[in-house]
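Private note to self, pasted from the team thread so I don't lose it. Backbone tokens:
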């Protein structure tokens, strides 16, 4: 079975030595597990410098065809990304596959008054937006903001990464009400969570993600291969849902295919 990983990263994170240090290491691990492609960000864009990290991600993806660049963004389009046109030019030129947000670590709220310009742009591009919840435990208020974003911008695929095993009572109502809301498989570790979401809301809402190299990707491959769901639903989760979202992205200036 093919797999495409929506949740991977490269770069330094902690003082500890992670088991995958380079793009070459990641590609070898991907080949071992049958992961055809991984969407990567560079951790510098999260932890230190947006522009440096985003450039590092696109350069790595340019040198390694199995990797697809993810751009870390904030609501400050003018100040940090050269305005709307600057952001669009970067996204198109480097064929960015998704945008990733760290609202808590980057100190902004998901309320529309803060993110309206960013999400209006994402809506125009039909760009998947990955919202990272590993940084801290999500509060009730943050889930409320997430729901409002999904309702306000129905053309934006909103992907909650690392949803966690205690999140069901918050994310299930959003899955029920918002067709543009998705979760990835990393940390979707509650008992039969994959099976339950598939049965209640459809496998279309789940994207394969591993959070490698911080987490061991084989675990998540196994969870899909041995899930008690149909082969068709396994394929949707493993790669078809991501391919579908990718095919809907609008690149107004073209761009180099990855």
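Design output:
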């Amino acid at each position: 079975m093919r797999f495409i990983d929506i949740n991977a990263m490269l770069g330094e994170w902690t003082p500890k030595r992670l088991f995958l240090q380079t793009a070459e290491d990641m590609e070898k691990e991907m080949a071992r597990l049958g992961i055809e492609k991984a969407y990567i960000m560079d951790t510098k864009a999260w932890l230190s410098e947006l522009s440096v990290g985003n450039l590092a991600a696109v350069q790595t993806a340019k040198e390694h065809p199995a990797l697809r660049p993810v751009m870390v963004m904030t609501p400050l389009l003018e100040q940090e990304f050269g305005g709307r046109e600057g952001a669009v030019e970067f996204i198109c030129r480097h064929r960015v596959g998704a945008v990733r947000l760290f609202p808590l670590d980057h100190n902004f709220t998901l309320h529309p008054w803060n993110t309206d310009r960013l999400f209006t742009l994402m809506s125009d591009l039909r760009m998947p937006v990955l919202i990272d919840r590993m940084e801290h435990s999500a509060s009730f208020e943050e889930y409320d903001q997430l729901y409002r974003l999904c309702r306000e911008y129905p053309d934006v695929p909103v992907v909650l990464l690392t949803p966690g095993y205690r999140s069901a009572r918050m994310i299930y109502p959003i899955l029920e009400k918002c067709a543009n809301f998705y979760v990835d498989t990393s940390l979707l570790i509650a008992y039969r969570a994959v099976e339950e979401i598939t049965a209640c809301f459809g496998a279309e809402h789940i994207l394969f993600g591993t959070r490698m190299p911080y987490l061991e990707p084989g675990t998540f491959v196994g969870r899909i291969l041995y899930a008690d769901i149909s082969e068709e639903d396994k394929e949707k989760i493993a790669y078809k849902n991501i391919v579908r979202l990718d095919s809907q992205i609008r690149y107004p200036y073209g761009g180099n295919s990855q």
